[in-house]
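Our platform keeps sequence and structure together, in a single record for each protein. Nothing more is needed to write down the fold, since each code stands for a local backbone conformation. An entry from our holdings is shown next, in its original layout:
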Amino acid sequence: MPKRSRPHSDPTPRERQVLELICEGYSTKQIAGLLGISFKTAACHRMRLMDKAEVHDPISLFRWALLEGYIVLHRVSVSDPPSAGPEAYKTQSQVR
């Protein structure tokens, strides 16, 4: 998938961790607990990501992360039928 030009800087390594967790459906409170950071710090990372993506909601942030190549979708099992729902996929950060 071709990458779009980025008007803003790339996410920091910590922002990429937060981005992956957002894309996996975790709340800001859950992200803070998983990463051992305060809620305010997790919320700040989320806000900075949304500013960089120029979006205002998690679905748009997910779309941006996918289009920019920050995450990729992988099938959980190759034996899943093609008509399997979204639960058959997981996200994985791209290493750049």
